[in-house]
Amino acid sequence: MEIIKIFMKFGLVGASGVIVNLLIYTALITLDVNYLIAATVAFLFAVSSNFYLNFIWTFRGKGKGKSVKKKYLHFFIISLLNFVINLFILKIAVEFLSGNELTYDIIKKYAGSNTDKIIKIIAQITGIGVATFFNFFGNYFITFRE
């Protein structure tokens, strides 16, 4: 099925975006930037990278009636909505992992003094994972639809 092939490509592009996102996010967290601000900055870099790769590879030739500018605007808006989902999950996950003594102790055992930073990174990965499905379907049916 074509949608499965496109989803797989979208997933690979998304994986590259996750790498961009996590590199920037982790660097900023390491510099003690607030985790929500770090997530926002990382998002802005990753969304542009993902649009370009999806435009030239995943959805190549799709949505021919739309300009690149319009596609980027749709992609950005959909990504922004999914970013809100990501931030919601991120905040809940940070609060849960930090507030759950058993989970906190397990992470602390392996992360040592970086426990809070590791929790924030785990929470970011969780948020990105949840938002990915909404992001794909939004872009498949809106940004790059025929």
Overview of this structure, please?
The chain has 146 residues and is an all-alpha fold. 86% of the residues lie in helices and 0% in strands. The protein contains five helices and no strands. Helix 3 runs antiparallel to helix 5 and helix 4 crosses helix 5. The radius of gyration is 17 Å and the shape is elongated. The mean pLDDT is 91.
Q: Report the structural category.
A: mainly alpha
Helix content: over 70%
Biggest sheet, open or closed, and with what strands and sense?
A: none
Point out poorly predicted stretches. Answer: none
How would you sum up the global shape?
Answer: elongated
Helix-strand string: HHHHH
Radius of gyration: 17 Å
Alpha plus pi helix count: 5
Tell me how many strands there are.
0
- Beta-strand percentage range: under 5%
Mean pLDDT: 91
Distance between the termini: 17 Å
List the keywords.
0% strand, 146 residues, 86% helix, 5 helices, single chain, mainly alpha
Set down the secondary structure blueprint:
Layout: H1 2-30, H2 35-58, H3 68-99, H4 101-111, H5 115-143
Short description:
The chain has five helices and no strands.
